[in-house]
Amino acid sequence: MVLTRVGVLIVGAILVLPACSFTEEALWPSLSGEDPAAQQQAQAPASRPAPVERAAPQPALGTSNFEPAGVTPGAATGTFVGKKVVDLREELRRLQGNITAHNQQLQELRAQMVRDAQQYHGAVAAINTRLQVGTTPGNPVLEQQFNNAQNDLNRLAEDVSRMNSLASEIGKDSTMSAYLSESSRAAFNISGAVDEDHRQLAILSDEIDRTVVLIDRLLKEVSDDIRRQTAYVSTERGNLNVLSSGIKSGEVYGGSLTNRALASALGGGVSPARVVDTANRRPLVVIRFDRANVAYQQALYNAVGRVLEQRPDAVFDVVAVATTSGGQAQTAINQTRAQRNAEGVLRSLIEMGLPNQRVAMSSRVSDQARNNEVHVYVR
Fold first, then answer.
1. CATH of the domain spanning 1-37+270-379
2. Backbone angles phi, psi at 55, to 5 degrees
3. Which helix (DSSP H) or strand (DSSP E) does residue 286 occupy?
């Protein structure tokens, strides 16, 4: 059913599981979006130290700079439309000022994340090297180095949190840019304009459209950075837990067994799950973006949580579905907006604790959807 307040359709999340198989046809419709009421370590032989398993390198951060091209000035014409052009131009200047500030924040955050990661890897490498050659159980020097490594990783997690906040601010810029784009197009239909008004309005509309594209690129790159760094920090927290046990026993263990098992089950690495065809499959959740600020998170959490209770190894597909209504030009805009919505859903899932390796994202267009949607499938 469609949840009118949050715009989320839970297609099914009650699972009927055979002993050895699972199919999406076993999903029963439908649920509301309201709230429902030790691993064994392997020890290396004493005569032959285990090889040190180095911490995985920090995933690459984006490298783009996002600087607006500026706003072309224009003389006031004295007409109502001319006044509208002046107001829109001033709004665009403020918006581009925000983009410049956010770009500066992004570059500073990236540099800080690299410094924190380098400090973290240096501390972990020193501990592993000492453990490999042998040391006393609970060596206080290693315990102090471990505390330093933990603090470095905590700082890196704080950097990711600040980048999440930055993404939220950029999302507000995206909403504003969409408003300016629609307002500039609507201004062409206001009567009482002179030729100079339309000339200035055409220039302004082009600059707004370029700004929309710049913001979309900025938000996508920030979202990609957040996705990779969140998965990286999560993996390293597991590795630190095992390293702590190694310091207590004076033995080198290596990386987290939990992280190894997850990587093995999903084909290795920290890259997202492989995209598969979702045609003719029933979605677990449909989120309809028919208004601003659709509150889908709780319903999404409930549905995905119920699936994971029955299938802890489930993998999810997040699909951006763009409506084709409005013609070819509007469809291109819809595709960009649907992709942005899907990135927001993906970011929400990761923030809820779903590992990055358990999610794949794709997109398609639909002539049946009345609004842009995001579909979440389970496999």
1. 3.30.1330
2. -65, 145
3. strand 285-288
Compute the distance between CA of residue 93 and CA of residue 104 in angstroms, rounded to an integer. 17
How far apart CA 107 and CA 98 sit, in angstroms, is 14
| pLDDT single digits (tens) 48-107 | 444 444 556 788 888 888 999 899 999 989 999 999 999 999 999 999 999 999 999 999
Strand-pair category, 285-288 with 373-378: antiparallel
8 Å CB contact between 330 and 372: no
pTM of the model: 0.56
The one-letter code for the residue type at 375 is H
Cβ distance 368 to 321 under 8 Å? no
Q: pLDDT, tens digit, for every residue of 264-280?
A: 443 444 445 677 788 88
**Phi and psi torsions of 294, nearest 5°:** -70, 125
Q: Are 207 and 169 in contact (CB under 8 A)?
A: no
Cα separation, 65 vs 217, whole angstroms: 10
Domain positions in the chain: 1-37+270-379
- Sequence-distant (6+) residues with CB within 8 A of 226 are 160, 163, 164, 167, 347, 350
The string of pLDDT tens digits covering residues 124-146 is: 989 888 888 888 888 899 999 99
Number of CB atoms found within 10 A of residue 143's CB: 14
Residue 200: which region, alpha, beta or left (left: phi > 0; alpha: psi -120 to 50)? Answer: alpha
Closest CA to 247 of 123, 116, 120: 123
Region class of 291: left (phi > 0), else alpha (psi between -120 and 50), else beta: beta
Q: Which of 208, 193, 162, 219 is CA-nearest to residue 339? A: 219
Closest by Cα among 99, 337, 68, 72 to 205: 72
